Amino acid sequence: MSGCACGHHHHHHHAAPSTGTEITLARPLVALSGHLICKDMNQMLLALDLLPDHVNLSRAEPGNLRFDLSQTEDPMIWRLDELFADDEAFAAHQARTKDSPWGQRSQAISRAFDRVEAQPRLRPEHPQEAAAISALLRLAFGGPDEARLVEALRDQDDLTLSLVADVGGAIIGHVALSPLAAEGPALALAPVAVHPAVQKRGIGEALVRAALEAVRGHTIMVLGDPAYYGRFGFEQVDLASPYAGPHLMALGPALPQGSTVTHARAFSAL
After folding, report:
1. 121-269 architecture in CATH?
2. What is the assigned CATH class of domain 21-118?
3. Strand, helix or coil at 258?
4. What is the C-alpha to C-alpha distance for residues 4 and 8, in angstroms, rounded to an integer?
5. Which of 165, 210, 231, 260 would be 240's cystine partner, CB 3.0–4.6 Å?
6. What does pLDDT average to over the chain?
7. Domain spans of the chain, in order of start
8. 86-123, pLDDT tens digit by residue?
């Protein structure tokens, strides 16, 4: 495994295989991968000095979805993987970098990168992705509640379905289904999360549709915006639930009106 001598925590992503169903975005994402190559010790020391701030500033850009950097077994060579929301986001990154200390002082360090257009792919989560999914949920919702919910569902073996939108191992979307106690096969759809940099581009809709397709024959319940979930066919229902009200909706085989539905126990902690 490659190490890093710069002392900075890099949030590395595993290299996931390109499997699953592609989501075709009208504006593709921009992915870069390659190496920074230092020719001598002075360049390596310069990189060690400047790269931590460059990484932090790059990750803070609103259009950045991934900025992973690590020294390889050869300390003169860094591996870099970047992902941006679109061409405009990448152009903004280049403009910021050009005027930064890293951009102005590292020009002699060699770069060898490939740039490609990238599309997300839908697939089940991998066991080692729990931390990345939690990080996405915290970012998408601006707090820890949804991350804690999914963690508890997973720990209690109540995560019936967990799908991710993945780009080369970077998790940019997620949807979960969990069991409901009801008068018929039923599941709860929650939460649905998309990285803020790529929201309102169809990724959330693709996640929901994929989840619904995977569990045909079940009643699916959601607590959400009727205007959004109505597009999938969800309708308001009159059921006995702590979440009863105009935002409690269902899709699929109808449950008896007024009957009781009970969410998985992880929901009670919210």
Report:
1. 3-Layer(aba) Sandwich (3.40)
2. alpha beta
3. coil
4. 8
5. 260
6. 93
7. 21-118, 121-269
8. 999 999 999 999 999 999 999 999 999 999 999 999 99
